[in-house]
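pasting for ref
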Amino acid sequence: MRRFGESYWQLHRAVVRIDETFDAKTLLSWIEGQRVPRSVASYDVLGRIERRYGLPNGYFKAKLPHQSRSLYGHDLEDISPAERRRLAWHLPDDFGSLPFSKREEILGWVRRVIISGSTDYRRFQAAATKQRYAIRFPGVTYGGSALTPRLAAFSWLRDEDEKGPTTEALEDPDLLSGVVDAPPRLAMEMADLIRFKTSTLTEIGYRRNGVWNEETASQKIEHLGLMFGALAASPNGVVKGRGVPLSQLTFGLLIFPGVWDWYLQWRERRRGFFTKWEEDMLMVAMALTRAEVGWIRQHPELLRNVKPIQGLITTDEIDAARRDWHGACEDFHRHAANRSKEIQRVMRVHRDPFEPIMCVLEADSPLAEYRKITEEILKRMPDEHRYPRAAAEAVRSFLMLRLGLHLGLRQKNLRQLLVCPRGQFPTAERRLEDMKRGELRWNERERGWEVFIPSNAFKNSGSSFFGQKPFRLVLPDLLDLYTYLNAYIERHRKVLLGRAHDPGTLFVKTVKTTSIDAAYNQTTFYEAWRLAIQRYGIYNPYTGRGAIKGLLPHGPHNVRDVLATHILKQTGSYEQASYAIQDTPDVVQQHYGRFLPQDKAALAARILNQVWEAA
């Protein structure tokens, strides 16, 4: 404006039409730095100013302090506000001026690739979200605290849909196509099973083989709740369940082959084929009915509550089980073992865990390819002084991915990692063992940030990798890792916490007025990682944002796949790959062997060719 000798008022008159409502004071607020353009209309005015002064397209946008901020004001009137907020980030600035067919194309691509992911499993999951069925057990306790099923892991079991029908309606099968609380007797049976499998000492008179940790117990509650929910769901509804009244649900049903055959076939009809899920459920049933140590096997009183169900259980079968309980359990145990072998022969993989990141794993250097996402985050980092919360969230996303790539931890270990600020005393090893958590602390001797995790915090704590010794690694100060780590611990983390209680973990949620807890759980941490991939990882041809073409949304566990595959491609060693993900060579060979065959010949040729090159 100074170069062309114009005031803001003259500029406003030159670029804003008479019939438009764009206020001159808005232009003044931009000049004085009080506000920045946020809407589609504002960006249109910016474009006119660029053309008036002969500036290249996007000149002013490149100078904005928040490069990745989404615009508001797109023409999306037929789309709900919630979906509009998710879509806005991924739409081009000129979306509203594009032809209708082009806008439909962009919306379809964003929904299919970025929002939902376009794998077969994602499409199946999207359809399944519309069908709610399960029996939940909210009163089951573990270790003195309520252990509720991780229902949020299944998007069709959202909290807002878990009101459940009234007590009078529970016996109506037509109303059971939803999530309901377990009837008291079934809830007591589940509580007894969890107590049996998780208590430190077995009750006198009972025997068991192995115990469940908290995650395993929660998973079994989920899976059994889904089975009972399928039995209770209406056969006339979309779920097409069996319509068994809630009053008849009991663990005693699980020793009858007809019940299991119906459930297995029901799952096959829904999915179209058998998967490892069905085999795992049969393994659970076999464990519960195993001689001497099975929980159901040691509770013959469960049969008292079993009633005939047409097509599943006959009166003769109940009478036979009453006469010889152990014989009935043994017969079912053999039946489940045979079914398991039959399913193993035909089961298929529905969710290929490598599919979302296949474009990364097929690269010559998977780690260098995935690292592009962290570079994209830094490229679009907002101004910390102007947008402290947005900057804190960006740094958190950056550190999630960077630490994941350096450590190769499972989601649980990374999510529960505690932080000890520099200058404070680190948590004692014994205390960390009791909590089964690791900690990020400053190591004065090594002059670096160290991650210390006791071996019992890992899922495979009994693995030969650990040898009952803790995991200890000093993070390398590469590509400004310590700069962002120090800034996050000292400043950004406090911005995210606000006035909420500090859970002590390194990664915390952005606390808002509706937030109850700043700590991540399994679902919210997965969603945070997935959101970072959606915003910074997936290349969007319509906006030019995103780091990797062909990438799909995924969670934190895939970073282990990246590390293991990278080392396999570079060294051909299963042993070295196992070091990166705290596992054994056998496990790495089983999971990642498919990525090595095409590279074996190249690895060998690289050594043999040295002889010819020397000649």
